[in-house]
Amino acid sequence: MSLALARRGGDPEQARRAQLIADSAAGLHAAVHALIPRLQSTDFDGTSLADALDEQVALWRQQYPETVFELCVEEGSAADLPAERALAAHRIVQEAAINALRHAGARRIALRVTVEDAALLVEIVDDGRGLPADWHRPGHYGIRGMRERAEALGGGVEIESGHRGVRVRARLPLQARP
Predict the structure, then answer these.
(1) Tens digits of per-residue pLDDT, 14-45?
(2) Which member of 31, 70, 88, 159 has the greatest number of CB atoms within 10 A?
(3) Is residue 31 part of a domain?
(4) Do residue 73 and residue 118 come from a single domain?
């Protein structure tokens, strides 16, 4: 029996179930549709990390006008960065900021990019509600993804959470390990 037929049929329970299925399918479609751009690669050939972050922050300012975004890219820190490192840094910033916006109700997000000891340091600090107590458990794919991106390049991610906000600090070596 088709969903349309079940919804039009005379049995209210069957129509309710059909609507539940249709709503679930629509929700799943929307979730997958929203995920696809996050999985697609960003081409950093000809675009610096600083420019990509400027563009990203400008977009967020339009989408979230009630949130204050601060971006500080230390001069020279993002220049001549290999594309895979720029992409990893960009994705880590995106994930941390989106988590703060969607899940923590952040009203201020500070993004800082610097170089220290032959590594790119990316720091994202928000004033949201902090992470839930169970954030270390499996299922937090965004956090796991940030860590995996950094570790694949020989770096790492540290996350500190309190009752007022989260600090994500990623360290990415500027050069690949020999």
Answers:
(1) 888 888 888 888 877 777 766 666 555 556 66
(2) 88
(3) yes
(4) yes
